[in-house]
Amino acid sequence: MTEEQINLVADIPGLVAIFGDALYKDFGSIVRELVQNSHDTIIEIAAASQHPEEALREYRVDVDFDRARQRLTVCDDGKGMDRVTILDSLNNFAKSRKRDLQKNLNSSARSDSAQALMRIVGEYGVGFLSAMAVSDKLRVWSHRDGATPVLWEYNAGKATAHVTDIERSQFEAMLSRLRLRPIRSGTVVECQLKDSIFEQYWISEEDVGTSLTQYAGLLPVPINYNGEAVSCKYSAWSNPAAATEEEWLDAIRGMHKEEPMLVVPIYSPPRELDIQGVLWIPERTSYFTTPRLDVYVKRMFVVADDEIIVPTWARFVSGMLNGNKLRRIVSGNTIQNDKNATAIREYLKDRIIDEFKKLRSKPERDYWKVVSPHDEAIKGSAADDDEFRACVWDKLRFVCGDRRLTIPEYLTALERKTEKKNTIYFYDQKKQQHSADLVGEATGIPILDIDQTRDDMLVRKICADKDYELRSFRELAEEHFQKPAKEEDFSSLVAACAHWNIEAEVRDYSPAHLPAVMIEDQTFQDRRDQLLQGLNKHGDEHFAKDLEKLFRRQHAANFGVSFYLNSSNPLIQELARANFADQLQICLALYNTSFMAAVPNLKDAERKTIYESISTVYLSALSKATSERRTSSETKKDESKPHEKQRPAQTDGVITVFMITPFSDTYRKLEAAVRSVFEAPPYYFKVVLARDHTFHNSLIGNVKSHIARADAYVAEISDLNPNVMLELGAVLLTGSERPIFSLRDVNAKSDVPADLKSELYLQYGTIEDAEDTIAGRIRSLIERDGRPTHDGITTLLAKRQRRALTRTCMAKLSYRLGEDELSAVLRSYSTVEALQQATREQVIQTTGLKSYAVEALRGELLEADKR
Fold it and tell me: What is the pLDDT at residue 687?
């Protein structure tokens, strides 16, 4: 057998293309890699001085990006390289001497602070491949004191590079050509970027600067980008071990543009975890479901972490942390979840809990100032983590009627009304709210709202921790809703309900003004669970039908709920003495109205049946009225007609679109997207929500007024929110031909109600999408080639006499007014026509705008019309 030793062959162009593309997915990462190399050479030379921390300030890295010339340069005044070094460093891929260099720096560091600063950030030796991957031509110019300057050149697609000794004058000429400062020694990397890079990435000078600031903002070496400093800005990072809270506040405000409510400095010396940084609780409510911690490794940004280092339950926390013992994944886009990461995660968890223990000792006002904006997120955190829950459980607030109570406050309120202690009454489904409120009002006992899954889980865990008893509001109703003394007096009402296949019971309860109430029956829920178990076990269709018949209570229409008639109510008392025909109609109407009040998300057929039932009762009452009352009513109606004629017009020729959404900030982005479509050219409609203008003191009266004044309606019906459906039902009952546009999330589970299927409904994506994405989706559904295609839209455009002048409309213009100027214009002019028809002097006088601003504004509006 002949043994032969062979050399391995690497395809350098292929290697560059594969590794350069796979390792670095964005242009910012490429800049980062080059800056790392410059940083490390300065660290090495500074470490050799007597005072390395001071020596760092004498050196600098300059990054320049010229988009027009497609050129990126990175220049440092570090040690530089001679011919031997440049051949060894740039011609041997994946060879890194930096681990050995770091060990030498650690052993020579004279203090913890010096050791923390003297960090080599490059690690794998493959970063230079990224620069080769994006460059048509790559040049490395370097000069070391006492050595001949060297030029290393590589052209894309070649298997070879060229190394040339050059004169010092050539080196200086290069610095002049690239408009770089004179340097005695150091290295310049000059990348002539490929055209394809500008097609693959959107690269601007601003983007590169932002990326560089993010990646390298904490490095101890001074770094400039296009002449401006991007590192060494914040004193807290210069000496994190001794940084004050005010210094950390300055860093947070500068780097994250946030105003923290609570600051938690993080520091563990190099001999322990070797971490530095800060956590904080932001002033504003966070709508993210996970925490955000900017993680740096050896002062170089790596990842915005939400699971490896930061405790995943601490979703209300933001932070930035540098870990010198953390390890980057080779791509540079994340960190290794190793024992160091685990130890840091436990350390951060302890610091957060310790800080909350300190916060608890402060006055209540100070505590709630920090916690209130994040109350819901903190509840979710308490549900997820046992130790954190033990620290904060008695400070968590839950909805209870029109109040928000902590568990201790709830128990105190309960003890005032009953002898029961350590008991919590609750409801856990939104559709039970009305019934639960009635039971709470009737008994005087507070009932906790835990219909949110998070609250449900949290309260159950607290009860398990503290050995509290958790009881449904239905059990409370059974205990307090007693049968009347003379139950037989109301037997005819029970019979009247039975005629409609409704199982009813007569109970004596308060408040007396409520004639009937409907409560979901827990026993039916238990039976339903048994049914599901049977189905899962047997999977037999006939068996399922038999079980369903068995579980119906005498085939009652209201199986699954309890329908209680109130014997203390005057209507029920009077009804018990009425003839049976009236009892039949009124009992059905009472059932339907109770059902409507207790069960949200009604289907269209159910809503129609309810209104027909109520109308029947009203018709019966009207038929029994005296002719005098009818005449009087007609007279009053006639007398009101002249007033109708005198009422001011509801519109000034502007098309008003009334938008109906659930009461939640979640839909603010959807609202903005709708405005950006309908308030912009070519529509110029005015989108109005109930909160925008108050026509009536009562909420219902205000909504009615908005409905009456609107020319069209936009409703978010993804989850068939009860408030939205009630308002939409009121719109449908007007019998008007005004268009209705229904908005639906693509993930909506509920079907579109039958009455709305004939209308235009738009699937806009998801509520998590960006505002522009949602707006683009809506526009694509109502337009084709930029022209309206839906009959409802074209009808509104034909009806429009004037174009609404709104903030959204003004925001679409390239000429931007200041906030005060914009407010002045909108106060003075409500339509585009009014602004255009006024003289320039009138506009200046009423708004205070400069003459050129008036002309620019009106000119742009005119151009928008032409488009």
Answer: 93
Taking the C-alpha atoms of residue 300 and residue 414, their distance in angstroms, rounded to an integer, is 55
In this predicted model, what pLDDT tens digit does every residue of 412-427 receive, in sequence order? 999 988 888 899 999 9
In eight-state DSSP terms, residue 742 is E
Task: State both tokens at 729.
Answer: 């039902």
Residues forming beta bridges with residue 154, ordered by sequence position: 138, 161
| Chain mean position to CA 218 | 28
The three-class DSSP label of residue 302 is strand
Instruction: Report how far residue 297's alpha carbon sits from residue 325's, in angstroms, rounded to the nearest whole number.
Output: 8
Cβ 403 vs Cβ 409: under 8 Å: no
Which DSSP letter does residue 153 get? E
Residues 6+ apart with CB under 8 A from 118: 43, 46, 47, 52, 105, 106, 108, 109
Domains 396-480 and 656-807 belong to one CATH topology = yes
Cis, bond preceding 682 (omega within 30 deg of 0): yes
Among 387-391, 463-467, 834-838, which stretch is predicted with the lowest mean pLDDT? 834-838
Domain topology for 396-480: Rossmann fold (3.40.50)
d(CA 467, CA 472): 16
**Distance in angstroms (rounded) separating the CA atoms of residues 431 and 601:** 9
- Going from N- to C-terminal start, the domains of the chain cover 13-229, 235-371, 396-480, 656-807, 813-867
What is the 3 state secondary structure string of 23-67?
Answer: HCCCHHHHHHHHHHHHHHHHHHHHHCCCCHHHHHHHCCEEEEEEC
Q: Is the Cβ–Cβ distance between 150 and 164 less than 8 Å?
A: yes
Q: For the chain, what is the radius of gyration of the CA atoms?
A: 37
Would you state the pLDDT for residue 249?
Answer: 95
For residue 254, the cross-strand partners are none
Pair 810, 824: CB distance under 8 Å = no
Question: Could you give phi then psi for residue 850, rounded to 5 degrees?
Answer: -75, 160
Structural fold of domain 13-229:
Heat Shock Protein 90 (3.30.565)
- CATH architecture classification, 656-807: 3-Layer(aba) Sandwich (3.40)
Q: Which two tokens stand for residue 351?
A: 């610091």
**Which CATH number applies to 235-371: 3.30.230.80, 3.10.20.580, 2.60.40.10, 3.40.30.120?**
3.30.230.80
Strand partners, 469: 423
* Region of poorest pLDDT, from 477-491, 518-532, 753-767: 518-532
